[in-house]
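Sharing a chain and its predicted structure for anyone who wants a worked example. Both blocks are below, sequence first, tokens second.
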Amino acid sequence: MYRAVIVAVLMLFVGSSWGCSIATVHTPDSRDMACTTDNLAPAIDSVMALNSAAGAITLGASSEDTVQTSALGAVVVGGVYAYSAYTGFRDTSKCREHIHTEFDNIRESREVVEEPDSPERSTEIDR
């Protein structure tokens, strides 16, 4: 019984911060380049998913019904973290790709094609 209470308290603590990536990672918008490029939230979610998986394996080895129920809860919590990590890494990758593409478009639009033997250009250089 004591172990089940500890597991329940730990799951409440872990569950209170579900899915950092779902809450904090912003995807690119076609009108705005403001999106999340940092992988900190998905990395935290990955660690929490692995922690939940380890807890589920440890708790699943017990023969007590209440502890096995807690193990099932740890699997569910781990699944939420794993999904949040997946979407977070996917969205930050999309953001970096979006920004890279937008900067390439801006760079291409600003390039000026100059004629190499232009008289105006040669007079500017000679001055």
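Comments welcome. The mean pLDDT is 77.
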